[in-house]
Amino acid sequence: MTVNTATIGYPRIGRNREWKKAIEAYWKQETTEAELHNQLHELYVNQLRIQKDKGIDFVSVGDFSYYDHMLDTAVMFNIIPARFKKQNLSALDTYYAMARGNKEAEACEMTKWFNTNYHYIVPEFTDVTPALNENRPLAYWQKAKDELALNGKPLLIGPATFILLGKGFKQEEVSSLFAQLTPLYIQVIKELHEAGAEWIQIDEPIFVTNKAEGYWKEVEAFYQRISEEVPGANLIIQTYFEALDNYQSVVNLPVNAFGLDFVHDERKNSEAIKAHGFPKGKKLFAGVIDGRNVWKSNLIEKAALVSELQKLVGKEEVIVQPSSTLLHVPVTVETEQELPADIRAGLSFAEEKLTELELLKDLLKGDSEAVKAHQQEIEAFSKVANRVHTKTRAELEQIDDQALSRASVAERQRLQKEKFDLPLLPTTTIGSLPQTAEVRSKRLKWKQGQLTNEQYEAFIKEETKRWIEVQEEIGIDVLVHGEFERTDMVEFFGERLGGMLTTKNGWVQSYGSRCVRPPVVYGDVYLVEPMTVKEIVYAQSLTEKVVKGMLTGPITILNWSFPRTDISKYESMNQIALAIRKEVKALEEAGVHMIQVDEPALREGLPIRAEKQAAYLNATVEAFRLATTGVEDTTQIHTHMCYSKFDDMIDTISALDADVISIEASRSHGNIISSFEQYSYDKEIGLGIYDIHSPRIPSFEEMTNNLDRALRVLNPAQFWVNPDCGLKTRNEKQVIDALTQMVNVTKKYREKLAAVAQ
Ligand SMILES: CN1c2c(nc(N)[nH]c2=O)NC[C@@H]1CNc1ccc(C(=O)N[C@@H](CCC(=O)N[C@@H](CCC(=O)N[C@@H](CCC(=O)O)C(=O)O)C(=O)O)C(=O)O)cc1
Ligand SMILES: N[C@@H](CCS)C(=O)O
Ligand SMILES: [Zn+2]
């Protein structure tokens, strides 16, 4: 008896990020639209071919995108804001204008996709008329059929997820949005069914949160209508990233299959099946291989889980698959030949996870020989010698409450105001400055041995010096060294910390065409030697103004890495925190007395399930304090957060006890500002006054309005002026123009405040 396998999404970027390169070439007008279509078509077909060749029975099709799948859904249903419609651009350029903004219009908001480091474009439902512009899933399904004779499993974002992750509507308008979208979904599904699609995957990850709870009537009505209007279509409601809290409500929906995650939240979904049963004759797409982490699965244990599910649900009814799309893991371990063999043996990226599904199939057929080598590799990895760092464990034992506290905020503010003597509304930036093609190519040459260490360091110094001068010229008050020596704010630390490793080609899409290579935590983490002191001290030596030390915090380093699974995440987080505490101290001892410890990923790690959130928030506060409280009260600790929803966690942000925080506010149109109306926030804060993801330079009025909006709620004496986030993705001219504007706006504002005070 054989079990079938499935996938529910695959990396779009290709083995060598061909996807990114093709899209960016089109943006730079180096290629035509037709060329872009050809290049992406080839990539799409190739990613399907890999899955087909690995023997996957139900390959999902249409998860591919030219930027982001939520944006695809919005454009497909004509959820296109008027500011883009009226520009009469081609369909493709309208799509990219929504994603990136252009001269005439601000980009749509971008935010985190659940608890991942992937960002989606938020659908804007204000003043739009839903209509079906194109049956996208059908087009992708047809391509798979024509090119590979593959009857794929077309994928749609379900209406609950699509609407409830959108914006621009009131709660009472949700019903009407469901009603307007229902006929469009019906048409898409009908056409897919008539074309011959065997299974249709409707992604409803929102069901693992409590966001759909208040709209269950609408959800039921939607799926009821589909079952009546397209009775023969085989629909799978696909959930992922967590187990369901509302298991019974979901499995009562009138579809033919349910996709559940059996990796996260341990045994919760299987317990629910045991307790409440599974609807007779329906299929269970069982996510048993971890789609979010990079470790090989113990297939003996997975086979036992599948057998248990088969007993509960019926042998024929279970299909095995990854717990989520594989979009969030790198493409293949094959390109990582330089990793230590015993660690590499423990890794499994997207392609290897397909192999694991095949091995699992063999094992379930009774062929235990097939998995022998696989299981031995896991065993080899478990024996990697240096995974325990005794000194770190002993030092963590010694940390007590006193080590985690500083003087009162008021006292620190008094000391720090005296020490730094900054003007009202001090201006600063978030840390990174343009990572130009020149910076990246010099780094590549250095890595390939074409530049010596001395030549590379001299180049980094030159770039730092040039930008210190630029910042002084513009008139910024607190400067940054620019992070030119860093590939990425997490990868840089992953390369240097003990117990972590980085990859050569382990890219994962973060947003749009931008990718990151998340490090892998394979052992106890510890500081080997100071990581940032040399560059900051050099930058500080060039100027009388203060240069901020620039670090990434323990929560973000862990959340943007692949964690180990043999100890708790909180234990790893504290180990990283201890290493950062030592780095902070090293900076302070070297004379750096303003230090930023970035925590943009604080929110993203928040567990989806409410019952686990308090423990997470407590652990993050503890880790951040561990990292930052080892300094004198005169040393000013900054932190920074971006592109997440922070407005409901001001308590936690305040408890971090950072002296200054900068938070992105402009791309999310100031969502966070109102939360400070009710909350008396006593520390210093900068709410971003312009969006750095758009090449467009905001006008003087726009920046002034953003500043004005924040200062209606916050006291100018506690306010800093800064952009939304780091400037690494912008070019030199854009940065200089935008920062000059920001400084001019601030100067005018100071004059206005001085006039009012007189
Ligand atoms: C703040 N953000 C970050 C997130 N996660 C992180 N881990 N880091 C972040 O900063 N999540 C939320 C947001 C997401 N934002 C971004 C912003 C920008 C990028 C980005 O620019 N990514 C780059 C890759 C950066 C990098 O590591 N570059 C390396 C390698 C460069 C490279 O591609 N080399 C080429 C040759 C280059 C040449 O010759 O020109 C090659 O090897 O072929 C480096 O700088 O050395 C991207 O390009 O996508 C990501 C997330
Ligand atoms: N210091 C980092 C923070 C990004 S979230 C940067 O400026 O890129
Ligand atoms: Zn940021």
From TrEMBL:
Gene responsible for this protein: metE
Keywords: Amino-acid biosynthesis, Metal-binding, Methionine biosynthesis, Methyltransferase, Repeat, Transferase, Zinc
Known pathway: Amino-acid biosynthesis; L-methionine biosynthesis via de novo pathway; L-methionine from L-homocysteine (MetE route): step 1/1
GO MF terms held by the record: 5-methyltetrahydropteroyltriglutamate-homocysteine S-methyltransferase activity; zinc ion binding
Record-level GO BP terms: methionine biosynthetic process; methylation
CDD domains registered for this protein in UniProt: CIMS_C_terminal_like (cd03311), CIMS_N_terminal_like (cd03312)
Cofactor note: Binds 1 zinc ion per subunit. Binds 2 Zn(2+) ions per subunit.
Domain Cobalamin-independent methionine synthase MetE N-terminal: 5-312
Residues that bind Zn(2+) 1: H640, C642, E664, C725
EC numbers for this chain: 2.1.1.14
Positions of the catalytic residues: H693
Chain positions recorded as L-homocysteine binding sites: I430, G431, S432, E483, D598
Family that this chain belongs to: Belongs to the vitamin-B12 independent methionine synthase family.
UniProt organism field: Priestia veravalensis
Keyword Ligase: no
Entry protein name: 5-methyltetrahydropteroyltriglutamate--homocysteine methyltransferase
Role according to the record: Catalyzes the transfer of a methyl group from 5-methyltetrahydrofolate to homocysteine resulting in methionine formation.
List of residues binding Zn(2+): H640, C642, E664, C725
